[in-house]
Amino acid sequence: MSSEDTEGARRPVQTEPGVLVHSGADRRLATEHWLLSTLTDRKRQAARREWERNGITALPMGTLMSAVRLPASLVVAATGGRFLSGEVDRMLGEIFEGGPVICDPGGHRYYALVPASVPRTWPDALDDWRAHEVECLGKGYHLCVPRLDITRHDEAYVSYWSVPMPSMATLCTPLRVARLIAAGVHALGAQAGADR
Q1: Strand 101-104, strand 56-60: pairing
Q2: Most CB within 10 Å of its CB: which of 7, 23, 32, 186?
């Protein structure tokens, strides 16, 4: 008997009967299918090719999900981090409890993916947020969505998953997004007051 056998280093993981365990590759494939499900078959194939070739494809908003566009200045003020440092990404993951966020480094923006209903159910908040350059992209908008494995800032790609989408239909909770916006607005106001 080897020392590995006696120490249990290679023992199989025991699961409870009836528990189905999905591999990361299975979750990623299911998430890709979910993201592309708003497209026709022909457009779906073109989107897959764009992901492979360019690392990004445009997907329609307002059916499966919408996106709240957040200026980097507001996100950085709310989190206290530095843009593109990785710490903001980590903090967003905590704040949104793993809800997916896309970062557009060139545009200095983040996109929190939220339920498709947000533009209809939060109209007053959205009107208030526009003064702070926050916009909700619903029906009629398209969002450039990176390939699921692009999870770090890389000059080779236009955008990346600041907080990766862990599985299909997992989205940010609108209330958590609203709280981040409120914290960012407050922090920016405090900075402006201190600069006077």
Answers
A1: unpaired
A2: 32
Which residues are bridge partners to 103 per DSSP? 110, 160
The number of helix segments (H) and strand segments (E) in the chain equals: 8, 7
Query: CB neighbours (10 Å) of residue 97?
Result: 11
Residue 90 token pair: 């980590």
Tokens 């779906």 -> residue: 44
- The 10s digit of each residue's pLDDT in 116-166 is 999 999 989 889 999 999 999 999 999 999 999 999 999 999 999 999 998
Token pair of 187, please?
A: 């922090």
Reply yes or no on whether the pLDDT at 54 is more than 50. Answer: yes
Give the angle subtended at the CA of 142 by the CAs of 43 and 45, to the nearest 5°. Answer: 15
Identify the helix (H) or strand (E) that includes residue 58: strand 56-60
- Range list of H helices, the chain: 3-7, 24-36, 41-54, 72-79, 87-95, 118-121, 123-130, 174-195
Q: Which two structure tokens, joined as six digits, stand for 127?
A: 């009107």
Q: What is the pTM of this model?
A: 0.85
Q: How far apart are CA 153 and CA 35, in angstroms?
A: 21
